[in-house]
Amino acid sequence: MNERFFAPCPRGLEPLLVEDLEAVGAQAIRALPGGAQFAGSWETCYRTNLQSRIASRVLWRVAHGSYRNEEDVYRLAESVDWPSLFGVDERLRVYVTAVKSPLKSLEFITLRVKDAICDRFRAACGERPSVDTAHPAVRPHLFLTADSATVYLDTSGEPLWARGHKIAKVAAPVKENLAAGILRLIGWRPGIPLLDPMCGSGTFLLEAAQAALGDAPGLSREAEEFGFCRLRNFDAELWTRLRREAAERRESGPATLPIWGSDASPDAVARTRQNLAYAGLEDLVGVAQGDILEIEAPAAAGILIANPPYGERLGEIDELAAFYPRLGDALKRHFAGWDCWFFSADTALPKLIRLQAKRKIPLYNGAIDCRLYRFPIVEGGNR
After folding, report:
1. Contact 33, 14 (CB under 8 A)
2. N or C: which end of the chain has fewer CB within 10 A?
3. CB neighbours (10 Å) of residue 76?
4. Where are any strands of DSSP class E within the chain?
5. Tell me, what's the pLDDT at 382?
6. Can you tell me whether residue 351 is helix, strand or coil?
């Protein structure tokens, strides 16, 4: 039996999410700003959680209706037979998102949805579930537009970009699903040489290596960590089979991959190596300390991807204004024949780097408006 779902994703990656959903057999797919809705069986839901590199989570639609005030939303939430969906001993947290909603307080409507769920449980079994805002087992979501309300249950648990293989992090990273999307947007495919010369904690390297091996991203997490494991309709036998099939599809791979990372910070290099080792990929990816202004290209041609810092304070802006022209010179000197891409919220980057951007792709890193700039580096004049 088909159910209805919604999968959010980073804004700008919706077409790639549609590709992921098509690959797992989803039906009635419709891309929307920030995600896509689709229909499918529970196997489709499990496969999306296991295999999509782009989805942030998968939400199961359990109620939908129009509303005018908080009590309308309460009645909609109370109409759901929550005790048939999960046990009273499961800790919950309610999430609310609104676009152009006339309601004045999202905090109050969050409480009303929680009350509706607890009231339904109390009427059915004489007790209510506990609330746990830090580590909830069950996550109802309410999405409000100007006049409609949709109630979902989260089937993912922790967001899907939390692959489970990164234990050493640095500040302000690019999320894993955004990195995976960027790799597809820039035309990288397994076998094409790839370099991240500002690798931070190694997100691009990890995503590229897993894609090269055919690893399903959800395999990095413990099997029982997904939200659907807490639902009464959980099919453990189906889930075990899907995980086993995904593990069998993993490529043994060569001794090494044409994927390299570097960073001027020895701490970042150490973190990247630690993350690669935890994912079992340390022998496949080359990582070394090095300044992007000085390192040599590791191959005659390939793709360079970097997420450079962008200035938020005056001193940082001045430093970048001096850095970017030197970066352009270094690319011309060391990376002729390479396709160089930079993901940044700094709109001054193309002008300051003094190279002609052949393409600009708008993307969002969370709420931050960013651009993905392409600079194909050729011998001779490119300015």
Report:
1. yes
2. N
3. 21
4. 3-8, 27-32, 35-40, 59-66, 95-98, 140-144, 148-154, 194-196, 259-263, 286-289, 302-306, 338-344, 359-365, 368-376
5. 46
6. helix
pLDDT grade for 173, boundaries at 50, 70 and 90:
confident
Residue 309 banded pLDDT, cuts 50, 70, 90: confident
What CATH number was assigned to the domain covering residues 176-217+251-376? Answer: 3.40.50.150
Task: Say what percent of the chain tops pLDDT 70.
Answer: 95
Q: For 88-126, what is each residue's pLDDT tens digit?
A: 999 999 999 999 999 999 999 999 999 999 999 999 999
For residue 375 the two structure tokens come to 């600079």
**What stretch(es) of the chain map to CATH 3.40.50.150?**
176-217+251-376
DSSP letter (8 states) at residue 82: G
Q: pTM for this one? A: 0.94
Q: Taking a C-beta distance cutoff of 8 angstroms, is the pair 341, 155 a contact?
A: no
- Alpha carbons 52 and 160: distance in angstroms, whole number: 8
As a whole number of angstroms, the distance between CA 24 and CA 19 comes to: 9
Question: Per 3-state DSSP, what percentage of the chain is helix, strand, and coil (rounded to 5)?
Answer: 35, 20, 40
Contacts of 201 (CB under 8 A, 6+ apart): 166, 168, 169, 170, 173, 268, 271, 272, 275
How wide is the angle at C-alpha 280 spanned by C-alphas 274 and 284, nearest 5°?
Answer: 90
Task: Return the CATH fold of 3-154.
Answer: VC0802-like (3.30.2130)
Count other C-beta atoms under 10 Å from residue 216's C-beta.
20
- Please tell me the distance from the alpha carbon of residue 268 to that of residue 288, in angstroms, as a whole number: 10
- Sole residue written with tokens 């001794």: 255
